């Protein structure tokens, strides 16, 4: 068997799996099986003399793909836009991965202001790069999942929109949210945490909020997606490991419950045996439902 034959065989198996999962329209055909086009370090805003950048990945051979905005994790104080899963790009979804101000530079809501500015920038530049912006999804992992959820459920919130960037006439709204093991309620997270989790979370919250949640209750509530959920919020998919020692799975349950209470579009994929991150989250049994969710919400 030649390498080409082997590749075709692997692709055929991918198509069969995708058809079974109902996500075929997001999978590239053989003509698209090329490297994505990459646009690195696009400056979406400048704050206090510092450029804020994003990396844009356009799937090869896909006309007008949907757009996913990716928010990296790192306890709100670390990480970079280089930490981006490429699985979505490989399945036909343009992906923009962001840098934003860390909690070591500025407290919340600075990071939220930056992310919303990036979404406005991406809408303003859509015709230049060729993705769709009528339906945008936002996603992230860990602290990035928290920020993605917070941005997703606070469209138009004056205190969280901010005035960062030069495209304030554009909308920062998103039409779908995918949260990988993120926080949703900073007023309950410490009570739910393991001792290991507390060692990570307490210093991280000091930097993010300028104090512990009970000391800065109003800011902790402002930073908690569960306090913002209303009937206008977009569809939500939550993925969380049931053995996560760092981010309590109850955080996902709380946001799931807030959506269910209002009868909103929500799904919860418990990743059995998974801890805080890992390859299980992008294995076919969890990637395929995520792709199906994105196809249904932003892929048409």
The assigned structural class equals: alpha/beta
* Number of spatially distinct domains: 1
> Which sequence of strands runs across the widest sheet?
1-2-4-3-5-6-7-8
Name the beta content range. Answer: 15-25%
List segments where confidence is low: pLDDT < 50 over at least 5 consecutive residues. Answer: 1-32
Give the CATH architecture: 3-Layer(aba) Sandwich
Beta strands, count: 8
What's the CATH topology name?
Rossmann fold
Q: What general outline do the C-alpha atoms trace? A: globular
The termini sit apart by 38 Å
Radius of gyration: 19 Å
CATH superfamily: Alpha/Beta hydrolase fold, catalytic domain
Multimeric state: single chain
List the helices and strands and how they pair.
Elements: H1 3-21, E1 37-47, E2 50-58, E3 67-71, H2 87-90, E4 94-98, H3 110-124, H4 126-129, E5 136-141, H5 143-152, H6 158-161, E6 176-180, H7 189-192, H8 195-209, H9 217-222, E7 236-241, H10 249-261, E8 266-271, H11 284-298
Parallel strand pairs: 3-4, 3-5, 5-6, 6-7, 7-8
Antiparallel strand pairs: 1-2, 2-4
Verbal overview:
The chain is an alpha/beta fold and 300 residues long. It has one domain: Rossmann fold, CATH 3.40.50.1820. Helices cover 36% and strands 18% of the residues. The chain is built from 11 helices and 8 strands. Strands 1-2-4-3-5-6-7-8 form an 8-stranded mixed sheet, sandwiched between helices. The chain is globular, with a radius of gyration of 19 Å. The chain starts with a helix and ends with a helix. The N terminus is likely disordered.
